[in-house]
Sequence to fold (173 residues):
Amino acid sequence: MLNKSLINIPNAITLCRLLLLPFFLWDVLSNRFNYALIIFAAIALSDKLDGVSARLMSQVTEFGKAFDSAVDGIVVISTFIAFNLTGKLDLIWLILAVFPTILNNISKRKIKEKFSGKMPPSTLAKIAMGMVYVGIIAILINFEYAIFFVYLSALLGYATMFNYLIKASRPLK
Fold:
């Protein structure tokens, strides 16, 4: 029998985001950036919608938080890899942008273990993810200064990573 905390509207929204990802990636790899932009808009909006709906319906769960975070990481990493494969993003930017995403997911888990799963969401992490989304959209629309947003998102990703590492190094209260 499945746990009821696994089956709820916010987790269904997150699952839909994950299920949209292959279609988005197919369009990116097929150089159909107009279609990819539409799908990515749905992915980005659903990312916000799952969190808001979880709070409004009092359906915030540890599984939901972890699932959402994992899907965020999968979306970012796979998108930047697809951009690299299509020549939209140089390898160095792929590495610089993806590295903090991976480390942030690892460090968040370590902090949650240390503080028994009680870690409030980081505002800096939310801003960083928002900037990642802006960078992805800028690349999709072929904005002349898109790399600036990728650079800024990487910078915010590293700031978030250091913020998590500082939290992890603090003694328990």
